[in-house]
């Protein structure tokens, strides 16, 4: 008899094979739910709705550092992005370079979310702009936020205002009450109020004129492609059936391989035209996402270090206490 487990994640090309039946997890009967990340993390942190679920890495280590032992992490990383490269600013804000963010009013959906963690970390390490140098305005309320479930309080020396319920990051950016915002997604949900494509507005632009070029620069300099989301599993499941850990990672590895094959299939036409240089073709053929602790140790440890530096965790969380032991060598 297969082990029945509920599992929830956002749908994207790398998880879709788990939804459409092309990939199954050996020994398990998975009941999947497609849930947007913002809603999912709030539900999982507050109610532990699912046996296995996608999870914010930042919020997970904050919860674990405060004694929440309900979950263990799985080294399955569904999303990555160069978050700082997507900072948005008003064109009339006088912000032309990262250092100009000092003293500015900055919107954020949720202060502790991983994308915001990476953005602040890049600003501090690359340009010397500390969290204390900006004035933050947070959209999510304590009742509908990750921080509400983890007991978030603004770190010492950092100003974080609560945006009133009748406003949002989007409305305050458009009115000029905010001069910049970080990790803006613009997808309304149960927990998010902003539902506007700010980049389509003539008064808004990205801080970095070439988002792609800044991502490449950061990767070449640091060797880091920031991880946003991982997966968690109930600790009691691992304790009773430790074999599920490796089997789940293997299943997502197979789904990942399918996604990469489909990506390459779409790219082959452009390869055949000869429009791309050989270096670009070679880079595009490499897997974009690799699961596992071993391949991602530097990135994960950097995120944990940034969490301490920014006052979100009181101590450095070690990977050995975050991830299921069965996954440490993967």
Structure description:
- The protein is of the alpha/beta class.
- 38% of the residues lie in helices and 18% in strands.
- The chain folds into 2 domains: 3-81 and 226-327, D-Maltodextrin-Binding Protein, domain 2; 83-222, Periplasmic binding protein-like II (D-Maltodextrin-Binding Protein, domain 2), CATH 3.40.190.
- The strands form 2 sheets. It has a 6-stranded mixed beta sheet with strand order 8-7-6-9-5-10. The chain has a 5-stranded mixed beta sheet with strand order 2-1-3-11-4.
- The chain is globular and about 60 Å long.
- The mean pLDDT is 91.
Reading side by side through the largest sheet, how are the strands ordered? 8-7-6-9-5-10
Topology order in helix (H) and strand (E) letters:
EHEHEHEEEHEHEHEEHEHHHHH
Low-confidence segments: none
Which architecture of the largest domain would the CATH scheme give at its second level?
3-Layer(aba) Sandwich
Q: How is the CATH topology of the largest domain named?
A: D-Maltodextrin-Binding Protein, domain 2
Q: Supply the number of helical segments.
A: 12
Radius of gyration: 20 Å
Largest sheet: 6 strands, mixed
**How large is the share of residues in beta strands?**
15-25%
Q: What average pLDDT do the residues reach?
A: 91
User: What is the CATH C level class of the largest domain, in words?
Assistant: Alpha Beta
Tell the overall outline.
Answer: globular
The CATH H-level superfamily of the largest domain is: Periplasmic binding protein-like II
Which class do the helix and strand fractions yield?
Answer: alpha/beta
Helix content: 25-40%
How many domains would you count in the coordinates? 2
Distance between the termini: 27 Å
Number of strands: 11
């Amino acid at each position: 008899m297969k082990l029945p487990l509920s599992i929830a994640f956002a749908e994207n090309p790398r998880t879709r094979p788990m939804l459409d039946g092309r990939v199954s997890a050996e020994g398990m009967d998975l009941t999947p739910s497609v849930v947007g990340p913002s809603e999912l993390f709030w539900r999982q942190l507050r109610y532990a709705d699912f046996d296995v679920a996608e999870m914010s890495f930042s919020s997970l280590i904050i919860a674990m550092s405060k004694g929440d032992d309900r979950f263990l992490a799985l080294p399955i990383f569904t999303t990555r992005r160069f978050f700082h490269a997507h900072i948005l600013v008003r064109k009339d804000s006088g912000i032309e370079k990262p250092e100009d963010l000092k003293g500015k009013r900055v919107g954020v959906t949720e202060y502790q979310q991983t994308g915001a963690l990476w953005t602040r970390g890049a600003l501090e390490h690359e340009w010397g702009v500390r969290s204390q140098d900006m004035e933050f305005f947070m959209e999510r309320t304590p009742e509908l936020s990750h921080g509400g479930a983890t007991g978030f309080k603004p770190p010492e020396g950092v100003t974080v205002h609560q945006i009133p319920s009748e406003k949002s990051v989007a409305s305050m950016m458009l009115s000029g009450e905010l001069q910049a915002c970080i990790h803006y997604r613009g997808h309304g949900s149960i927990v998010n109020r902003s539902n506007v494509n700010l980049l389509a507005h003539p008064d808004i632009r990205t801080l970095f004129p070439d988002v792609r070029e800044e991502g490449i620069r950061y990767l070449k300099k640091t060797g880091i492609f920031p991880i946003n989301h991982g997966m968690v599993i109930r600790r009691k499941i691992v304790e009773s059936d430790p074999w599920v850990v490796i089997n789940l990672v293997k299943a997502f590895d197979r789904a990942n391989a399918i996604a990469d094959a489909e990506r390459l299939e779409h790219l082959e036409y452009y390869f055949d035209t000869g429009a791309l240089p050989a270096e670009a073709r070679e880079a595009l053929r490499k897997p974009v996402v690799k699961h596992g602790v071993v391949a991602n140790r530097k990135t994960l440890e950097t995120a944990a270090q940034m969490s301490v530096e920014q006052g979100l965790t009181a101590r450095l969380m070690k990977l050995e206490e975050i991830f299921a032991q069965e996954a440490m060598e993967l």
